[in-house]
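example protein:
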Amino acid sequence: MKPITALRELNFDVYLTSGGQVKYSYKGEQEPCKSKIIPILNELKLQKTEAIAYLKKEELYKTLKKAKDELNSECQDWEKVFDYLNSHNQELSLKIDEAQERIDNLWKEGRSLSEIGEAIKEWKEFNLEASRLFKLQK
């Protein structure tokens, strides 16, 4: 999103608060040039709804990436894990699928990042359990 990118290029941190408000803070050493910043902030205010959606999506991707990175550090061969689950523990396989569907539904419903984060945490834990079970059977 143009105003967020422009502010970040000028050394601003732009983020969502836990209450879902767009906030920004300057990270640079020298005082920012107000004649450059004011038009960008005005544009950001006009596009507040889009900015919130953009930052929310960005935060969701960061949360998912972190969970996937943690899972990938735990196991490198998820295809074998899921093959094992499908033949030996369909109940856990179903829990993983349902957790993924819950994440998707919470996102589509526009639910809070904390709710989606909890669903991602649950999804990650089910996957970690699957990885541990697969390793035990070797």
Q: What stands out?
A: The CA atoms of residues 99 and 122 lie 7 Å apart.
